[in-house]
Amino acid sequence: MTHRVQAIFNHTEDYVFFPDEKMVSLCCWNSRNAERQRLLALGNVIGVLSKVSFAQQPQEELIIREGGTGTLACVINETSGDEVHRIQWYREDEAIDPESPVYPRYDYADHAHVNGNYNLTISAAVLAEDNTRFYCVIDDGVTQDETSQIANVTIAVFPVQALYISQNGAELAVNGSAQFEDGFEGYVSVTVNNCNPAPLIRWFYRNNNEAWDILSSGVTTTLNPGTNENTIVATSTLSLTPSSDDNMAEVMVRISHAALDDELQLFTTLDVEHAPTVIVVDPPPPIHLRAGNAAQIFAIVAANPNATVIWMKNDEVIQRGNPLTFSTVDDSVAGENYWCNATNVHGSLQSDRFTIVVDTVISGKPKVIIIISIPAAVILVVVIYVFYIVFIKDATPLPPGDGTTATVSSFMPDKVDVSVEKTFYPDGHGGIVEREPESTDEEAADGLDGMPDRSRTSYAAAMSRPKTMPSLLSTVKDIGELMK
To answer: Which contacts qualify for 355-358: CB closer than 8 Å, 24 or more apart?
Structure first.
């Protein structure tokens, strides 16, 4: 309901006052031009006898989280004097009395105002009421009032549930992927609804788990009114023209806000569709396959979406699908003109031609055994040859070991080769012993007449001593000792 009253100014007074009991304030007009003056406060007014000025004015910016508490500064200097002054706080142009029950959420930090402390405390901050301008005024009742600087109070609100990331208007899953096409521009956006003030939104990029790089270009931010009073809708959009190299790269959004203790982070993966760009044949060519075995040859293709692989030999299709499979490798598999073709909806790519070799002999590790066996065979042949030269080539065939007598070649001390009659007997251990017949006077004339008696006696004694023919095992041992 509105009440209207006509006021007539006779221009004999300077000001006209009208008390407003509901607002606990005093309205004032200039009587000469009917211009409304600053609203004055009524109620409990604190007065002191002093000459005052501001020692500390309200801060220019104060951010209080919704439901939280904050304090606006106002400290005055007091000097002795007889002027009466008062301190009045204002919210916008509305005078407020911190000591009145009309404003229960506002209070002085120090009711005794020690050292001129008139700081104003705001409790249980409300977005609709406290998100505005505050200031205070010193009125000494005589001179012109002194007004403080304006304090802009911001009530911070950030509804986390209203945060989402989207592409082309469609919301993406948390830590999901965004669809792009190689060489075509696309967009990813992050939106915060009904927040106050506007958040700080930054975009970052990395590929192959490298360090994060901040994205400064291609980012635009728009602010629109929110559905709630004193709120806004903040939207930050990233424009990208990715290539095939960006497929599976990561994009991160970091959001900072006065209502948050820590940054919020959102992630999305770039799903970049592209034609086949690389084909790697595994195992690498030339490919060796063992005859008689099963084998598979793979084509590793970089493509999105996945490519269809066709295998060719001599320009003829031999198989569709990956890998190339041979159930049994034979000579018909060998060839130099193999290749494959990979195709998806965005294009196709042909691999380099490669060769398949079929191994029909021992391959792989058995070759090492052959290489090692060749030197061993050579050594064995040498040993046999030395044995033949030393023990077999000039040896006399063994006579029967039954006690018969045979004539064998012998060497005299003076290197004269003579024939000696010897008798051979079994030694009972698988060998044969030889024993010469006893010397006779007739034997002195059988080629030994030129020898001194002493040499003849020593030779006869040596030849009469039983001797054992060496066995093959002892001969090999002796060769081993010599080789050491």
So the answer is: 355/285, 355/286, 355/287, 356/286, 356/287, 356/289, 356/297, 357/286, 357/287, 357/288, 357/289, 358/288, 358/289, 358/290, 358/291, 358/329, 358/330, 358/331, 358/333, 358/334
